[in-house]
Amino acid sequence: MTEEYLLLNGLKIDPVIFTQGFVPGCDVNICTGECCDWGVYVDLNFRNIIMHHSDEITNVMDDGQIKEPDKWFEKEINKDSDFPAGYSVSTSIYITSGGKEQCVFKDKNNFCSIQNAATKAGMHKWEIKPKYCILYPLTIEKEILTYDKIHSRRLNYCGVHKKENFTQSVFEAMQEELIFVLGKDGYDFLKDHYEKKYK
Ligand code: SF4
Question: Is residue 191 within 8 Å of residue 37, measured between CB atoms?
């Protein structure tokens, strides 16, 4: 029998987030930020927020990255109810000098130029970062907060098939991210459930 979803302010919570294993933490020195190699879908209105900071972002990019903001996003706009605007757009992919494909915002050290720009400008590190980048390995699909198993299958360190690397649950690993996205009250609600049922 499938366990029922928890409900949090209209968002359904898939209990898989409490049981799925994960690595000790995201560490680009180990994984090279592989999860960024396919780019990410962004809310159409959030694209404008990123573009508003194009100067700051360009300033932290390395010489191999694409510094023309009009090339940062794909032209195709997708109807998508998972985003507040009702539409999403994908970040572009570029080929590094080493011949590797990755998100246009991923730099040669495997860090995100959007996050670097925010930190340098004195903002919160995630203030202008796409929500789905913050959340990964979690995702929100059709108003369900769940584990992104499909993307995870492509990843060689933290992927769903890499059980030997797991030391904790996805929920435990994602404390800071969940507080940022759901708020402290939302996180505490989930933590209370987790401790009663899974610890
Ligand atoms: S926007 Fe940044 S965090 Fe998101 S996929 Fe691109 S490089 Fe990775």
Answer: no
The finding on whether 103 has its CB within 6 A of some atom of ligand 1 is yes
Does residue 192 have a pLDDT over 60? yes
83 and 102 part of one domain: yes
Whole-number Å distance, alpha carbon 135 to ligand 1 midpoint, is 11
For all residues of the chain together, what is the average pLDDT?
Answer: 97
Same domain for 119 and 155, yes or no, is no
CA-103 nearest atom, ligand 1: 6
Q: Ligand 1, closest atom to CA 132?
A: 4
Span from the CA of 26 to the centroid of ligand 1 (angstroms): 14
Q: Within this chain, do residues 97 and 27 fall inside the same structural domain, yes or no?
A: no
Residue 186 parent element (H or E): helix 175-198
Statement: residue 177 has pLDDT above 80: yes
**Which residues touch 123 (CB under 8 Å, ≥6 apart)?**
none
Would you say residue 175 has pLDDT above 80? Answer: yes
